[in-house]
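So, who can interpret the following?
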Amino acid sequence: MPSPTPATHNPCLPSANPCPGPGTLRNRALTHRRCKTIPLYARLVRYGFRKHATYVGAALAGAFTNSVFGILRAYILIALWQARPGLAGYDLIDAVTYCFITQAFIGPMQLFGGGLGIPERIRSGDIALDLVRPASLQLWSLAEDLGRALYLFIVRGLPPMFVGAALFGIFVPTDPGHWLAFLTGFMIAAVASFGWRYLVALSVCWLVDDRGVAVLSLVFTTFMSGMMVPLHIFPGWFADLARSLPWAAMVQLPTDLYLGKGPVLETLALQAFWAAVLLGLGALGTRAIRHKVVIQGG
């Protein structure tokens, strides 16, 4: 289910009260001093986290939904792996773990699309204000999105994994280096996911209506990321091709790091490559819309 994007007050912005009292001035000075000591994009990560933390109920409802569908998927995979033991190099525990790890990735990676308010701001004309900020639109959006991903991983991503561990038993790494590799891969996957969704969002500037692109993105992200089934199941050259595409960097590659199924340095390098490519294309797209933008109602 899509994550809400409520608008909340930013404590680092000046108050709208034209006649503040002495206490308000003192508090504002303290807030201003505190905000100056925190880098802008770090504040935006915190802001994105707090903005989505406003709606705990929605995140918990998403966690419940992901857990239920995770249970259904787990029984299907259990039946498949009992019929084909060792399929794709996974044993039964690996297959169940894969199921609940990918369920946990749905919210943080926004696998069903969306998560960015850019298309709506293009239609309303507010994108013009974003483009004249003294900060990069892309980096501003990335910082907020990382805060969103972190919050949804904690509140919406971990519960399905706990459910899977309680009902079926899942693989849990014990080596700190293993956890470090996975968490690094998770953060790069979040950046790659943002990079792809940012490009889809910018397409509204030229296409006006992004529904077709959004549906196409949903198809590729769902089936080519490893969300439905491990990409290792695909036959021959098609499996190699799927694992080398950017969508694999969002789900399959970090899942391989968690399960210990892939070389750490090569996996992280491939993820970082696609994250850099997508961000680079996003930077070019941002530069392009400064020169030619179609804004509905603007």
